[in-house]
Write a structure and sequence with these properties.
about 400 residues; alpha/beta; Rossmann fold; 2 domains; six-stranded parallel β-sheet; 14 helices; 11 strands; elongated; disordered N terminus; disordered C terminus
Amino acid sequence: MRWKCTPLLFLCVFVFVANYYEMYDLLGIGIQQNTGTVDKTKILLPTPPDLEQLDCPRFAYMDFTRNGLGHRLSELVFGLQLATKANATYILDTKAWTLNGGHGNYSWLLDLLPLHNHYITMEYFDLWKRVKQGLNMSRPMNTITGQWKHILINSKIMDCNVIFRAKLKKCCERTLNPRNDCYCTGISSHTGAFEEQKELLRSIWKESTYRPPHELLYYSNKNPRGNNSQDTNDNRMVSIVWHVRLGDIVLRNDKEYFGTIASQIANSFRESNSSTPLLPFVVVMGEGGKDAILQHFDFWPELCYQYFNDRCVYPDLDVQETLYHMVQSADILVTSGSSFPATAAMLRSNGITLATMPMEGLTGIFGVSENIDIDVDGRIPEIGKLTAYIESLSSEEQKVSTIGNGL
């Protein structure tokens, strides 16, 4: 049987395509037009492109994994870097957030970081591709996978109708097959990935609709601190969110290491030229809350008493609230060396971050320029920056700590 082009057939095709676009508008992920209006006070955020208007379709994305949130957020950063380097349109695979990982599914992340407002989704892309190819209106898409260098070389050679795809895993340059799709973090060409994407992602974070069930001040009020006369409502507490990793991927987890860091932080408070005393209030965050944390770090109460006058709490928060407070609530964030707090540090627009070196010893990839680095022995060479920051908090006439602030 041969198809004939009749007015009725043309009308059916027209209605199908029209309904296709209308369906995506109803789902809230349809094509959005760029009005051309630019607010010069903000970074120019991307707008999902009208795929019908692309003269040379080129796309890029990272395959998602079932690992934890830090891993998936890293895949987001590296995927954006891949798209930039390959001169391609980034595709957001929202399934990365809906499939279960180490802490259930992460569909809530799009409330905290509404990426779908700025990038085309994989669902939309797949449907667009099927419609185009089903109507013979597009050549088949070529997919280029492989190691980072292999993809970038091909990005210079390939023209249009191409997808560049990589996966975050450890094969990297050790494999003999250059087409083995992987994006390993341990090579120098990825240096600066978090730094390159930070302003963009911070701007998207500011569109968050999420509000935590409790602000950090709630947990400070739950902390029994005895009759310490300094701990009154008139004194100003500075929030320190200290992330501890209970697993085995961090560089050091011993008492001496944590004590070295804690003593330098405490000294910064003592040495700051503060007209009004500022008191450190430490929120130790780790999976499982106080019982799990003290099972792995039984020395924490001793360190807290010695350096922070027993002003420490160990709340058992879900991963969503933990991420929010690390990004939004902490005056000072101390990371653990895992990718989860590293991505939180990247998203922070305010406060200061003391960044622990990852177990792999990687530097320059997960870091951002605002971080103050902690070395392998727990020393903080640029500790003077922390002291100056504490002094800046004290010098404000009406310092309102981000402990109680929302977005």
